[in-house]
Amino acid sequence: MARQLHVELVAVEEKVWSGDADMVVARTTEGELGVLYGHEPLLGQLAEEGQVRIKQAGQELAYDVAGGFISVTGTGVTVLAESCVPASSASVAH
After folding, report:
1. How far apart are CA 43 and CA 76, in angstroms?
2. How many H helices and E strands in the chain?
3. pTM of the predicted model, to two decimals?
4. Which long-range contacts (CB under 8 A, 24 or more apart) does 21-25 make?
């Protein structure tokens, strides 16, 4: 079994989601970033209009975000977004 990342998705007003995931995908100003357990640490700026996708066994959660930062450690990901709302099914990109 693959090791999981601990993920924290936080907007200015509240903690949106917290838990374990197999992978996190986010759009940064440098391009799309996919993060698995053991990823090199980094700090990135989220794109002004982007999406964060949290992949777990058998499901994917998607959130539309506007601005903010993503912080990656070897064991976890923290997304600090200026705004964050669940993505509509029409906006989910695979």
Report:
1. 12
2. 0, 8
3. 0.89
4. 21/54, 21/55, 21/56, 22/55, 22/56, 22/57, 23/54, 23/55, 24/52, 24/53, 24/54, 24/55, 24/77, 24/79, 25/52, 25/53, 25/55
Question: Shortest CA distance to 60 belongs to which of 24, 18, 88?
Answer: 24
Report the candidate in 39, 52, 38, 41 with the shortest Cα–Cα distance to residue 80: 52
Give the pair of three-digit tokens for residue 80. 């600090």
Residue pair 72/28 in contact (Cβ under 8 Å)? The answer is no
Res. 91 pLDDT band, cuts 50 70 90: low
Q: Quick check: 45 pLDDT over 70?
A: yes
